Inverse folding.
């Protein structure tokens, strides 16, 4: 039931001790302010890291060759391993049930591309049709490399938006001829890439054409990439990725006469396993931010509790008179708790609204690849406020309980 006299007492007590009340409220408000800002910063880091993984499809596994570091079957270390089409084909056949998308790649580093009077050195890659899905390439004009291009060794090119702007300016590129290291290719598509301009300076060509034209008809490839069929849970995806990487590593090492424990000869990188590392890092960051924020709130709540003890001490004689006139212990507890909860609630709202306003104003202005859209879920923000009110109630309860235990005769003798 609303008791106007109780609220009058609270406001009178606050008015008599403005500075003390302000400092107490500031400590509580700063606690929730810091907590919400830290949670928002943690979310910004999480969003930024998640954005980086948009450059690749879910669960991309990259495989490349290196140099042997161990003697094996009479072969000395230091041998350079070369992946070939047969490595790609045997991997596809062996793990057909696990594989969703697959692509081999043969690169031309700093390929000289000429169109009319425009020229430049760009990264040219011979790839398979599935490379579009693996790299999450978006076609804005024309098409990507297809199976007929691969089968017929067609001289076609799919160019990035940045490269198109450099060479063609505002002109339509589809159907035009470009010269790559003095070999003519027809532009059949233009793409954008979530990785940005660096990726959009690339040119994608049919891998068989690149092998024939720039590799003197060889069957060499630089690397292979695979995605696996999606799983219902992250744990299942991680287990499937580990099974595939172990299996394909053993297969390729056996085919190329490499020691089973030689990790340098056949390199494998799984984004599924990398994502786990980043998720773990995000978890540790969130836990650290929660810990710092909660410790700050606890410091503010301890301040509230100390202030309530001082208030009880100052009002000891008043409490004794109230009890002598018939006030119940419950009413004494309520009197102290009301003031404690009121201060922490108002201070908590101020801290919460200030932090949310700061995130809303400053967050969009922060430009970073690894920090994006710092925000706090409303449910979490509300939960922190409820937590704060409960903490404020607990902070006031113990002084209130102490006040309720004071005997009237002792309180009336207090000076």
């Amino acid at each position: 039931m609303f008791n106007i006299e109780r609220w009058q007492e609270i406001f009178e007590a606050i008015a008599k001790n403005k500075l003390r009340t302000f400092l107490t409220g500031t400590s509580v408000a700063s606690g929730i302010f810091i907590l919400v800002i830290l949670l928002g910063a943690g979310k910004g880091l999480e969003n930024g890291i998640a954005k980086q993984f948009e450059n690749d499809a879910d669960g991309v596994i990259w495989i490349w060759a290196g140099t042997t570091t161990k003697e094996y079957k009479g072969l000395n270390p230091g041998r350079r391993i070369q992946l070939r089409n047969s490595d790609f084909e045997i991997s596809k056949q062996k793990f057909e049930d696990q594989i969703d998308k697959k692509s081999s790649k043969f690169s031309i580093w700093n390929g000289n591309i000429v169109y009319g009077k425009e020229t430049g050195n760009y990264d040219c890659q011979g790839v398979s049709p599935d490379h579009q899905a693996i790299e999450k390439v978006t076609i804005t004009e024309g098409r990507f490399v297809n199976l007929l291009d691969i089968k017929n060794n067609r001289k076609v090119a799919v160019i990035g938006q940045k490269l198109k702007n450099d060479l063609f300016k505002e002109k339509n590129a589809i159907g035009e001829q470009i010269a790559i290291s003095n070999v003519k290719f027809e532009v059949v598509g233009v793409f954008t890439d979530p990785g940005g301009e660096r990726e959009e300076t690339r040119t994608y060509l049919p891998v068989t054409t690149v092998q024939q034209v720039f590799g003197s008809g060889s069957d060499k490839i630089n690397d292979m990439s695979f995605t696996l069929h999606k799983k219902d849970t992250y744990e299942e995806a991680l287990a499937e990725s580990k099974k595939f990487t172990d299996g394909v590593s053993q297969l390729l090492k056996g085919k190329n006469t490499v020691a089973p424990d030689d990790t340098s000869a056949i390199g494998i990188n799984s984004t599924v396993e990398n994502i786990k590392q980043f998720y773990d890092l995000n978890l540790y960051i969130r836990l650290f931010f929660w810990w710092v924020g909660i410790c700050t709130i606890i410091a503010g709540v301890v301040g509230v509790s100390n202030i309530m003890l001082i208030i009880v001490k100052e009002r000891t004689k008043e409490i004794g008179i109230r009890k002598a006139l018939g006030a119940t212990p419950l009413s004494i507890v309520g009197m102290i708790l009301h003031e404690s909860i009121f201060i922490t609630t108002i201070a908590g709202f101020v801290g919460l609204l200030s932090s949310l306003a700061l995130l809303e104003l400053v967050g969009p202005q922060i430009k970073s690849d690894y920090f994006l859209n710092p925000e706090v879920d409303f449910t979490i923000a509300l939960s922190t406020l409820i937590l704060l009110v409960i903490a404020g109630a607990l902070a006031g309860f113990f002084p209130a309980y102490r006040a309720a235990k004071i005997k009237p005769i002792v309180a009336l003798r207090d000076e």
